Every structure is written in C-alpha cells, then in structure tokens.
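HUMAN: Mind sharing a backbone?

ASSISTANT:
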Amino acid sequence: MKNDLIIYGYNCKNLGDDLMFAEIINKTDYKRYFFIGHGEVPNFVNKEIFFIKPGRLMKLRWKLKADFAVIGGSVLMGASPQQKDAIRQKIEWFKWNKITGGRNFIIGANLGPYDDEKEYLDLLSALGSVVDKWFVRDNVSFDMLEKVRTRYLKLMPDIVMGFDKERFMEESDSSVAISVTSVGKDNNNLIDAESYAGEIAQLAQSYIDQGKSVNLLSFEDRVDLEPIDKIASLIKQTNGSVNIIKNVGEDIVKAIAQADVVVSTRFHAMVLAALFEKKQIIYAYNNKTTQFAQTYGFETYVVTGSYVGKDPVKTSFDKDVLRFAKTYAELVQK
C-alpha cells in the first residue's frame, strides 16, 4: 500500500520553490500529498494537494507512516535566533513523524548562513539523528554535513535542473532578462540595496541604449516588485524598452528561455539560465548563490556601484549532471 508524502517548504508563490515542489510531486507516486500550512497549490504542480493546518492539534492531523520532506534551499539558515528556532521546530516535526512510523528527508538544501559554527553544527547533528535521507546541492553543505557524520548523504544537482525544458526551447529574441530581488531578505546584509538598484539600472540602461528589450523578472511578486519598481524608475528609455514580468504562469520561464543574456540575482534564475545554456551575469548576493556557482564553476560578480567589466559568460550543465537531476523521484521514494 502506498504511503503519503508530507511537505514543508516555502510555499508562498515563489517560482523557484514552486518548480522544486513540482519536480518532486509530479514525478513521484505517493498515495496523497500534503503541505504543512495554509498556502495555495504551488504553480506547475499537476496533482491534488491537501493541507495540514499548523497549531496545537497539528499532531492529530498528521498522517501515519508518511514520508516527510523539507524541500527548499534556504530552509536551514542559522544566522539569527528566529532561524535557529525554526530548525528546532523542524527537529520536533521529524521526531513526531518517526513516532508515527514515517521516514524523514531534507531535499535541495544548502546550509547557512550561520552566526555560531559550533551551535549550528550541533543543530545539524540533532537533525542528523532524525533525518533518514539528505540531498544537498553544493560542496560546502556536503562537507559540513560530513563533519557531523550524517547518514545517507548525497550531493545532488539542484532539483530544478531536472525541469523539462524542451517545450520552451525557442530561438533567442535578443532580449535581456534581469532577475531582481530584495537583496536584504533572509537577514542578508552583504549588499547595499541602493548600490544594487543603481548598478542594475546602469546595466539595464546599457542594453537599452543598444536597442535591446529588457525584461525585469519578479520570481516572487510580494518581495521583488518593490526593488523592480525602484530600478525601473532609474532607467531612461531610449532605443530599447523595459518590461516588468510578474510571476504568472510560465511567463518567467519563457522570458529566460527566449533571452540572449540573463542577469541573475535570484538563485533559480541562475539555475534556469544555465539549464537553457544562456550567457549570464551572476550577482552573488548571498551564500547559496556563491556556493552553488563555485560547485559548477560559474563566475559571479559582487556589487561595486558600476557594471563596467561585468561581462556575460556562457553557462551550462554537463549532460550527465542533468540526467542525475532527473533521479530525485526514484531516490526519494525508494
């Protein structure tokens, strides 16, 4: 008899996370699929989704002998007391799922940032005692988990690298797709927001002056649209044009697939652009971008206040790596 899959992740209409959820849900064969929370059904998911409401009665709503997966990149941050408390909450959920006869997975994570290495490693060790399978997507995270002797640890491609891109394959239209986000989110203080907006506006202006169409991409509208509006206000339209593309349906994926150049701030803009073998300018605004880029040999740039010298570089993944990315469903469910 098939069991259920319970998922916890950032289910807030974020394109990258929705694609991660869809890759696992659409390609596995569980009896039923549950999300913890009150969210909507993620985009790209083609199966029926149920929800387990958090709260005091949550344990009573849990499913017996279920697989429980925490899915996402920034699900194990430890740079603030709130983030460490969130890890402790996951440990309690994993413990409860063990009591009810289930298995526990962490899928697609990259570790950090953290403010105290010893405390963070202790939390990872506690997780390791209740997690049955770990799938991480960069070398730094893999090495850190080996320190705490994590069992069933696999270094995997990002889940989205298994995305079926064929139906989006079209000739480039010479447009430039620029992924924009709030660089201070997740307590990230590596980049000054004003300097970032100014530099992206300069870069966009340089392409517009060449007569190119620039698409400013919002992966998560409630977070990305504010900095996009700021950047758009700094651009003077001359020979080209500026378009703001919200996270609606497949619009963002299509814009990346059709672009000649992709400027990536969002993590999954970088992944999708490499999947479509695009020339990229990758901004390393947090550790997960840097760690992943280093794993696959991608060049990254920091915000300096000027776009000069930041040239787009062709990016792609090896075919063997992409084939490996398509094995997630098998590895998770077996």
